Structure formats: structure tokens, C-alpha cells
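Q: Could you predict the 3D structure of Multicopper oxidase family protein?
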Amino acid sequence: MFETIAGVLVTFAMTALWFTAGIIFAGLPHIHSHYKLRRARTLLYWLVHIALVLGMIWGLLVISLWVGNGWLFVEGIIKQILPIVLIAHAIVVIWTLPRLNNLQRLNHDLLSADARARLAHPMLALPIIAAAFASGITAFSTFLWQPTFPGFVDVLRLAALLLLALAVPSIVVVRRYQSILQEKFVTFPLWRRLLSFVVSGLLTTIVIVVFLVVNATASLHSSKLPEVSDMMNHHWLDEGGGTPTMLSGRNKHHDHANMVEVAALTGDLSAPADVRYELVAQKQEILLASGAKVETWTYNGVIAPELRARQGDMVEVKLINKDIDKGVTIHWHGYNVPNAMDGVPGMTQDAVKPGESFTYKFRANQAGTYWFHSHQQAAEQVLKGLFGTFIVEPAHEIETYDVELTLINHDWVTDQGLRTAFVNDDLMKRMRMESGKRVKLRLVNANQLSEKYMLQGTAYQITDIDGSPIQNPDLLPDRTAFRLAAGGRYDVVFTMPDRPVLFMIGDDANSDQPGVIFYTNSPPEQPDLQADSGQFDPSRYGQPAENEVTAVKTFDREFTMIIGNKMGFYDGNFTFLWTINGEVYPHTPTFVVKEGERVKTTFINKSFSEHPMHLHGHHMTVLKKNGKNVKTPWVTDTLNVNPDETYEVAFTADNPGMWMDHCHLLDHAAVGMVLHLMYDNVMPSYKVGAGTGNQPE
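A: Sure. Here are the predicted C-alpha cells for Multicopper oxidase family protein:
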């Protein structure tokens, strides 16, 4: 992240220096004394050279980013940004610097036409202004349009923007130069020159805005989501460099006899249900422990209902929509259900409208801690409370616990402002516990961002990540903090000592955050908060995961997801976009696989935000971080990728269907940070879009 932030600061400084130099150059023909000319020349000399040095520093930062993070972090910069910066700076070195040096030999009358012509020569001022605009484009591109896989047209478009930005200054500078040569130059009062400068700046701004508006108009129309579509990008099928699939080339119109629809991928439903639940989606006013009122959307009128099953059970859950107008679904987050049971509206089912119902039925093959939530307009519906926990006990208990507590945290918008709570406990909770008791905390982060947690008062173990057990988990020292991705889950185990134990969100600087105090005799009135002693790192914990992908040397398919950000339109609205390979849904690629293949995906985060990447229907094994093998590969379904980080993960394509792969910061998914994993023998069954009522996020 250092190179990115430093690059932004350097390019903004370059822009300021070049524009300052440009203003001074523009005033040279109005200087009447050699003393003032010497002062101006000295100042320009330093401004230009400092700006050139900063340009070299920026280039070194780009090289450092390339060496440290790989080519894909810088390919857009080098292909699209670097050419205009190099050309602008090269012209300054070749044309402007020699003329600037020659000004010291200007000894004759400064009011003469020859002297003024040398001071007003276009190749003094225009290269400086060009360098200023090139630096400004570089600085703002980091925030406004991070180039990813730019084509020749993209390079030309940026060059055209630079040339158009120079149009008005070029006209002004050239006309002034010609008037001097024709001895028609008049030195106007300062206010007149300032007015001319402001007018030129406004005209330049108008030219730039018109150019951007013309380009934005085209993107505005292309950003409109189709009224009805099948969510699959038929125009960008990425096969990951593997062998041809049934969707390759001419096979896009393959005989459907060998294909199956998503709706048919239900799994074997013939066995009777071992456990049954009924969930009613409804609006409900809830009171938190503090008395704060929340207007929530709930399942069964309570916050985060808990469903339980035993590994191997046939689970049946009937969803009824009482009064959620836009419809609801249930997505089983992290649970590898058959595709038709995944709960994604428009992909695996239609949204359940008010008065309707839908029954989910699947075999509980995975033990562990999971959760469920609506995937219809998820950014809104999860925020309002349409979620719960799904706990699957192992078929054969390996270890028993005296106390087991499920804690799912969420931020609520209440009548008392924003409140963070575990379920509905937004205050510090106290629980009496005998020393020596074994305690298991099942933690679920249902927030929009990753959260930091801390256990203080005893050593502990993290035994499971996203429902997957860790082999031989180490004992973590007292006050070791850990961070959990949005949508992620950790199982935390400790033995109660003869002193209080505190579990809470945040750290010693967050005394107002909720948590649990476990105590043996009398509860402490106020927890004695202490700074954390370290940070948990799953890449160096326990024993390495061993499965069918950890020993693979050559994968059947390899995909790359470059995460970036830019300003642009989404469905006709101007907003901040989070992109995958430079695009947002529905223009993101469709990853195509065959059943049984070993697949690798590389995440590259060039953006300024973390992104918890969540693949439906599969678990990913983390193999590499920042280009290096992790010491202990681990299994996850929601991987938090921080800015300037890269991860290589792998999975086996063993669950046929059409699956979402998206950022679980649901506000990001709502503006298109979504793509789809498609098995080549599967056909869509449902439609999305405003015309269907299905709005997955």
C-alpha cells in the first residue's frame, strides 16, 4: 500500500509544481527588469527540476510496485498512464530546459521584440502545462479510473483528453507569441491579465468537461441493466486457459441433450426430512438490550434465529414471506448445498413474494458454524436483519464443551443512532462460569466490514475457520486479537481460568463496544481493558490443510480477478464503482469450468478497500499470499483481500451449477462487484432484472 499512497502524494505534488511553473512562465513576457527575470528564472529552475525528480520517484514507485506485487498491479499504469507522462516530461527536458538555461544570457532590453519573443516562446510554457495535465491525470486516475487491461482505444482516449486540455492554453500562448513577433503585443494591467487567466482556465475546464460528458454518455447507456437477462455474460466467457468446454466457440449453440438446467440441480430429495423449520420473513420492531428500538426485517420476528442440525441430517426449511414487498430468499452462506437450493434470486430460484413460500431441502454434509441471509437486494435486506445462524453438529463428537455460545454481530440503525450488538445485546453481557469449564464461542460477522475481536484473560484456540476445522490448532497467547471478514466465521475455544475473561469487538480503545465478561465469583463492574498482545495470522497457525488441491502442481484452469475502483455509472446512476478485471456486472467475465477439474483463482486488490471475496457452493484453499506460499494453507469460503494484497486459492469443481462469486461488502456487490462461475454443462433456468422482480446482490 505504501507505493500506491506515496504515488498519489507524489503525483499531486508534481501537478502543483508544474502548474505553478506554468503560471510563472506565462508571466515572463511581462517582466521589465533583469533582477525580476533572474529571480523568476531561478524559481523556475528549481520548480522544474524538483518536478522532474518527483517524476523519477514516481517511476521508481511504479517499478517497486511491479517488483513487489507483480505485473498485473502495474500493467494498466504502464500501458495507459506512463506513455503520456514520459512524453510530456521528455519534451520538457529536450525543449524547455535548454531555453530556460538560455534565459540567463538574455542581457539586452527586455522590452524589445526579440527579448519578449524568447520569453514567450511556446516551447517554454506549453511543455510545462502538458506535464501539469499529465501529472494531474496520473494523480486522479488512482481514484477515478484505475486502468485495467487497457486497449489501444483506451490509450488513444487518454491522449485525446490531454491534447484537448492543451487546446485553449496552446491558442493563448501561440497568439501571444505571434503578436510579439508582429510587434502588436501590449502589456495589460495585472487585473486584465488575471481575468484572461481565469477565462482561459474556465474554457479549458469546459473543454475537459465536454470530453468527459461525451464519454460518460456512452457509458451511461451501456450501464443500464437489462430488463430481463439470465445473469450469464455470453460475450466474455473465460475458460481459464484450460481445454475447450461445451461453451467454447461454436459450442455455444451445443445440443442441449447433454446439458442440465439449474432448476434440476436439487440433489436427491427422496429421503424424508430429519429436521424441519419454518421461517417467516416479516417486519418487526425489536428492542435491543439498551432499550434502543430497531425497525427490522426478520425471520420469525426475532433477531438471528438459530437453526441446528446434525451432520448427515436431511434438512427442510420452508420460507414464507409475510410482508417484505420486494421478495426474499435464503442463501446458506458457506454451505455447499445443491445449486437449486442456494437461494440466489434470478439464478437458482425466483424471489419469494409476499404471500408466497419456497422450501429448501438438502443433506447437511458439512459440520460447523454457518449462517443464512436473504440474497434479494442483500445490501438492504441483510442490513435490516434478514439473517440467522445455521449450526451443524458433527456426526460423531470429537470433543465436548461445557458451554457453547453463538455470537453474531451486526450494526443496527436505531432510534438512538448506530448500535453494534451481538444478536440483540448491545451492552456488555456478564456470564458466571466455573473455572475449568470448556467454552466454545461460535462467532459470525454479519456486518458490512471486517471486525477486530479480542479475548482477554486467558489463552485460547481458533479451532475452525468458516466451518472448516484446523488441524492441531496452536494455543494463542492471552489478548491475541483477530480480524474476521464480513460474512466470515471463527470457532474460538478456551478453558475458563479462576479470573475474569473478556471477549469483545475492537480493542482497549473501544470500551463502549459490546462483549461478554465471563467470571467465576462476582462480576467486575468495569472490564480492565488492556492492549492486544499480537494479531492472529491463519497463514501461520496449526497444521497445513491437506486436500485434493494442496498437492496439485498444474491446475486444469487458472483465473485472475483484478479488483479495482473507478467513478462511473451503474444502472444509470453516477457512483463509485468497485470493478473486477476493469468491469462491473453484467460486463464482468463468466468463469467456465468442467466438473471434476482442479481450479486456481488469483485475487489481486489494486483498490483502496478491503474485499471479502465469497464463492458460493465451494470452499477455497488458500495457497499463496503476495506471491509466496503460505506456511499453513487453510480452507475458507470468505477470504478478506486487503489493498495491495494478492492471494492464490484453489478448489475442486465438484458442485455443478451456476454460482455467484462476489464481494461480501454487500454495498459493493450492489453496484456490480459480481461475477459467476459456470459449469459448462449447465443452463440458466431463471431471469433477473427489473422486469422479473429478481434483484440479487
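Q: Anything worth pointing out?
A: The first strand starts at residue 237 and ends at 238.
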